[in-house]
């Protein structure tokens, strides 16, 4: 029973000293661990700016949470520092996160506004795409000297725009159709998708990928060093038992070598300890955190990272995988997607658009496809899979705005899928009222 005349909030945090370091995207570390080789490649690629040559284009890729953005920011700051010492004209824009821009127009519009003063910002609409590109070229020429533009999560640029955008911008200074005469443009693209370059047109590959730097996943020992550094800043002295950081590091290394995941585990473990009124964060808190972190991460996809149409496609793919007697083929995914969208009153997009959504989900590392060759008469088809456990995806969907799209018998289907009995399982008809307007396994 809660005494309503008492204030339940505590004046001090017994566990955390400073939580910001655990929010990795908003914290710039003073030390970069285990990225000496990658930093060396970066320095070599950008050295030309300092000594008076034109800037190179650099493409940086690797999975989420392996230090790409942190290293890029550190190198950027050192480059600006040296350029100032040597009186080399250099303007650096970014990193700009492309996830925030759903079209080439919006991205170029945002880049223009990075150059402009607050009172001179472009509105979000009202011009043609060609016009905002012209505005961007004018701003670049007005700055003059070397202009380096850093685009983070560059794989989020829409497929129908990325080839034109990534080809035209780095080559704008050489085009007779732009006002650029004095400025020299360099582009740094950062991608979480290891196959992003492969999907680009050959002419774009040669332009964008002059210098490529690959960041691989961290191993358990490297993660232990990195997580230990952040934990020392984030937690109060002597709060963590000795096995917390090694356990978080081992779990993260097992999954995908991702620092961000390890930080989430530490934060969640600390919150469990604080909720219990415990003075220490223990192995038990950490293990409990690892059990819930996957669902929480996928829930963020549904609530923050994916559009409603992408979310429905992601969910349809997951359900197609566990459905009896069907492969997760593109046509089957589209059928399930259509039913899901109708069941919650969302507009049903065309089959072509859903193929684009699958492509976007693939670029974000949420789904993977494999090609099946059916012979001379059968042609080829693509079979999809999800990169997370279907149970985690369904559990997250049940906590999201898409819970009403799930059929009532989904957990039974999932259980039979896990037991390898899906092909012999006959789903119930779902006679309850809430199920009548939902698609059913058949």
Report on the architecture of this protein:
By secondary structure, this protein is of the alpha/beta class. The chain folds into 3 domains: 35-214, Rossmann fold, CATH 3.40.50.300; 219-303, Helicase, Ruva Protein, domain 3 (Orthogonal Bundle), CATH 1.10.8.60; 306-435, Winged helix-like DNA-binding domain superfamily/Winged helix DNA-binding domain (Arc Repressor Mutant, subunit A), CATH 1.10.10.10. Helices cover 47% and strands 10% of the residues. The protein contains 16 helices and 7 strands. The chain has helices spanning 36-50, 68-85, 104-115, 129-143, 159-168, 202-208, 220-234, 244-255, 259-276, 283-305, 308-322, 330-343, 351-363, 375-378, 390-398, 410-418; strands at 58-61, 90-97, 146-152, 184-191, 211-214, 367-373, 380-386. It has a 5-stranded parallel sheet with strand order 2-3-4-1-5, with helices on both faces. Strands 6-7 form a two-stranded antiparallel ribbon. The longest helix is centred in the middle third of the chain and has 23 residues, at 283-305. The radius of gyration is 25 Å and the shape is globular. The two termini are 48 Å apart. Mean pLDDT is 83; it is low at 421-442.
């Amino acid at each position: 029973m809660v005494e309503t005349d008492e204030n339940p909030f505590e004046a001090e945090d017994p566990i955390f000293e400073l939580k910001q370091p655990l929010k990795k995207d908003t914290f710039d570390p003073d030390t970069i661990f285990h990225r000496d080789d990658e930093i060396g490649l970066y320095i070599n690629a950008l050295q030309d700016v300092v000594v008076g040559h034109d800037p190179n284009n650099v493409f940086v890729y690797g999975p989420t949470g392996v230090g790409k953005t942190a290293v890029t920011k550190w190198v950027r700051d050192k480059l600006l520092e040296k350029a100032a010492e040597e009186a080399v004209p250099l303007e650096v824009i970014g990193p700009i996160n492309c996830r925030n821009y759903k079209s080439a127009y919006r991205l170029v519009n945002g880049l223009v506004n990075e150059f402009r003063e607050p009172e001179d910002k472009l509105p979000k609409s009202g011009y043609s795409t060609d016009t905002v590109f012209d505005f961007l070229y004018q701003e670049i020429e007005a700055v003059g000297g070397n202009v380096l533009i850093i685009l983070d999560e560059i794989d989020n640029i829409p497929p129908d725009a990325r080839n034109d955008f990534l080809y035209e911008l780095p080559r704008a200074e050489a085009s007779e159709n732009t006002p650029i005469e004095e400025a020299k443009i360099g582009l740094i693209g950062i991608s979480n998708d290891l196959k992003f370059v492969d999907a680009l047109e050959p002419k774009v590959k040669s332009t964008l990928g002059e210098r490529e730097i690959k960041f691989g996943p961290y191993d358990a020992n490297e993660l232990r060093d990195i997580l230990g550094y952040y934990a020392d800043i984030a937690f109060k002295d002597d709060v963590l038992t000795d096995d917390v950081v090694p356990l978080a590091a081992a779990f993260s290394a097992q999954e995908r070598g991702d620092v961000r995941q390890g930080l989430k585990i530490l934060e969640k473990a600390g919150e469990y300890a604080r909720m219990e009124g415990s003075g220490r964060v223990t192995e038990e808190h950490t293990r409990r955190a690892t059990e819930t972190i996957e669902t929480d991460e996928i829930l963020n996809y549904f609530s923050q990272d994916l559009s409603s149409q992408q979310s429905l496609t992601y969910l349809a793919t997951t359900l197609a995988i566990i459905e009896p007697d069907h492969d997760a083929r593109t046509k089957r995914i589209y059928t399930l997607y259509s039913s899901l969208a109708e069941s919650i009153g969302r507009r049903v997009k065309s089959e072509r658009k859903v193929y684009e959504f699958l492509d976007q989900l693939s670029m974000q590392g949420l789904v993977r496809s494999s090609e099946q060759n059916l012979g001379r008469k059968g042609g080829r088809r693509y079979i999809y899979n999800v990169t997370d456990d279907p149970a985690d995806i369904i559990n997250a969907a049940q906590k999201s705005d898409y819970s009403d799209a799930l059929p009532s018998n989904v957990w039974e289907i999932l259980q039979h899928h896990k037991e390898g009995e899906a092909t012999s399982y006959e789903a119930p008809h779902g006679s309850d009222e809430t199920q009548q307007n939902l698609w059913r396994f058949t």
